[in-house]
Amino acid sequence: MKMLTNILSSVLRPRGAAGQLWGQGSAALMWTDFWELSMRALAPFMTAVRGAGGNSTTEATFETRPYKLHRLEEPPLPSTTCTRDDALLYYRQMQIIRRLESASGNLYKEKAIRGFCHLYSGQEAICVGIRAALRSEDSVITAYRDHGWAYVMGCSVVGVMAELTGRSQGVARGKGGSMHMYAKNFFGGNGIVGAQVPVGAGVALANKYLGRKAICVSLYGDGAANQGQLFEAYNMAKLMNLPAVFICENNGYGMGTSVDRASASINYYTRGDYVPGIWIDGMDVLSVREALRYSIDYCTTGGPSGNGRGPLVLEVATYRYHGHSMSDPGTSYRTRDEIQEVRQTRDPYNALQGTYCWRRLGHCGGA
Amino acid sequence: MVGVLQKLSVAWRLGRQAVFRPVVQAGWQHVRNSSHFTYYPDTVPESHVIFGEDVGFGGVFRCTIGLQDKFGKDRVFNTPLCEQGIAGFAIGSAVGGATTIAEMQFADYIFPAFDQIVNEAAKYRYRSGNLFNCGKLTIRAPCGAVGHGGLYHSQSPEAYFSHTPGLKVVVPRGPIKAKGLLLSCIRDDNPCIFLEPKVLYRSAVEMVPTSDYTYPLSSADILLEGEDITLLGWGTQVHVLREVAELAREQLNVSCEVIDLVTILPWDQQTVCNSVKKTGRLIVAHEAPVTSGFGAEIAAAVQSECFLHLEAPVERVCGFDTPFPHIFEPFYLPDKWRCLSAVKKMMNY
């Protein structure tokens, strides 16, 4: 019953990202609200193990993919446990993001979304994995490929799509568009490449200054990794021992330029030089989650005066299926075969589904 | 509809070489037949270089298409994503003696480079007592509203740079002017910022002469002679003002003089003041926000110079003082209706 009233109130009295009443404040239901309502209500039933047949478990242990370290002695844990509910949650989140991005792509082609639209398909494991490790007090700031991040940081699908289409029910009242979505402890959504990283370092400073044991995760891409302001941010964070985690989402291409044509060093996790770094396989949700748990521990404990041991630079190796944005087909600088190969062999939710079923965390039809 | 640009035949598409020097191409491209004018000089100077993000394959607006194949990777090349680096690199290259044309992918991204341009490029000659200079530098950047650009693909930063002595800032209104002005900028012995209104890349098609020609910088063009009021703009706005002049003539029986400022810094104060002394009224229109937009400088200078000739205060029809909106762009821009209502207001002052 409580679940039902929670669901109803989130739809009937829609609230904006900052908790304020949105729209008219009255029951202005759209058909999509009924969809979301029923999906949420039915979710427990749809995911229940049918007959609990066979030997399925509620928790299992998985090996994480190997990490590469820079100036660190101890890696994140080589194995991690995952409950059935968590695995289902990650799977659901990644699926929603994938479908959200597909829908956004289609809406863009219909010109319902104008402006710019940068799709996150293929990189879902990063935001889902990081969010799984973050606590409610931690902050995130990212660049313009932020739809998936907006969703995992608490924006509803309707809020994200309304923002994309410029409606007032959008998370930024329709004024930001694709690149500027915000939520509690999610500082956007930034259009200028690399500009979010010093800002993220600043949020980390605020966290430290105000005594919160919270970190700030600043994400950027392989293209942004060559911006000068990042190195300024690394230096300040290291100098002042800030709880900042800088994460490079390396999808291999900065717009149309491959990493080896843009960067003298493509080991982005070492670019912090004096800042320790970790390389993570970003197609595995659990590896990402484990690395972030390690980072949170590193940045909040073990240092002087009860603070953390300083910033970290993480590189998450991933891939994007779509082009840079909707005006880029994505095939003039890479082959379709390459994209297909990644889709078939390294897709993040296929990987999760494979391990999930294999470990019999749930009943997979026919398995 | 942006202005009165006529679609012309493909006969002027360049294949044959022009008798000319610079290795530059200003690509004003019509979507349908891909005609764009390209300069392939007969004698190729060895010291011209062009670089910027994605410039090698032709650029995101295809302004540099074919140049890398023709002139080689050592002269036409990509840079990584680092505007401050690009600007600094370009300044050094120009000081060292190579005629350098650097591209910022969008004028909105020029701000990391602002320090290099304002503190280094603009002051090089002065601070070295003319021992060194970066006059061989030209920086190109697409600017202006495009219909769906939002905050970071629509800005017009000419006012920021107009506040920097030592630079030249130029904004063309179409392909014919663009070619002449770009060549002038490249040959000019001062660092120049060439802001190209990006909406005109597709919508502007003109018959561009294949031979070499330049336009003098700092010389405003009077596009339409009039008696009652002067309309002043640059870039895309010039076409809007031409439409406004047409509407004013039909609906209000007002004869407008339309001037394209062409160069923002140093601007042609003489032409503008002569015009205002004739008509007695001035409207300045630009897309950039009104506060401290370049219209403010023009208004201050004109009222100082032509005070006794003015029939009404100088009016500025500009973007509002907000970040450039995504969804509200049609309301934000100084379109023909806002300009027309300003004309009406001033005629009835």
UniProtKB/TrEMBL annotation, chain A:
Biological processes annotated in GO: pyruvate decarboxylation to acetyl-CoA
Residue stretches making up the Dehydrogenase E1 component domain: 92-353
InterPro entries associated with the record: DH_E1, PDH_E1_Alpha_Subunit, THDP-binding
EC number(s) recorded for this UniProt protein: 1.2.4.1
EC class name: oxidoreductase
Keywords per UniProt: Oxidoreductase, Thiamine pyrophosphate, Transit peptide
Cofactor(s) for this UniProt protein: thiamine diphosphate
MF (Gene Ontology): pyruvate dehydrogenase (acetyl-transferring) activity
Protein known as: pyruvate dehydrogenase (acetyl-transferring)
Organism for this UniProt entry: Scylla paramamosain (Mud crab)
Automatic annotation (TrEMBL), chain B:
Alphabetized Pfam families for the sequence: Transket_pyr (PF02779), Transketolase_C (PF02780)
UniProt entry keywords in alphabetical sequence: Mitochondrion, Oxidoreductase, Transit peptide
Co-factor(s): thiamine diphosphate
Keyword Mitochondrion belongs to the record: yes
UniProt-listed Enzyme Commission number(s): 1.2.4.4
Subcellular location: Mitochondrion matrix
UniProt GO cellular component terms: mitochondrial matrix
Single Gene Ontology BP annotation: branched-chain amino acid catabolic process
Residue span(s) of domain Transketolase-like pyrimidine-binding: 29-203
Catalytic activity: N(6)-[(R)-lipoyl]-L-lysyl-[protein] + 3-methyl-2-oxobutanoate + H(+) = N(6)-[(R)-S(8)-2-methylpropanoyldihydrolipoyl]-L-lysyl-[protein] + CO2
MF-aspect GO terms: branched-chain 2-oxo acid dehydrogenase activity
Top-level taxon of the source organism: Eukaryota
Assembly mode: Heterotetramer of 2 alpha/BCKDHA and 2 beta chains/BCKDHB that forms the branched-chain alpha-keto acid decarboxylase (E1) component of the BCKD complex. The branched-chain alpha-ketoacid dehydrogenase is a large complex composed of three major building blocks E1, E2 and E3. It is organized around E2, a 24-meric cubic core composed of DBT, to which are associated 6 to 12 copies of E1, and approximately 6 copies of the dehydrogenase E3, a DLD dimer.
Cited function: Together with BCKDHA forms the heterotetrameric E1 subunit of the mitochondrial branched-chain alpha-ketoacid dehydrogenase (BCKD) complex. The BCKD complex catalyzes the multi-step oxidative decarboxylation of alpha-ketoacids derived from the branched-chain amino-acids valine, leucine and isoleucine producing CO2 and acyl-CoA which is subsequently utilized to produce energy. The E1 subunit catalyzes the first step with the decarboxylation of the alpha-ketoacid forming an enzyme-product intermediate.
Protein name from the UniProt record: 2-oxoisovalerate dehydrogenase subunit beta, mitochondrial
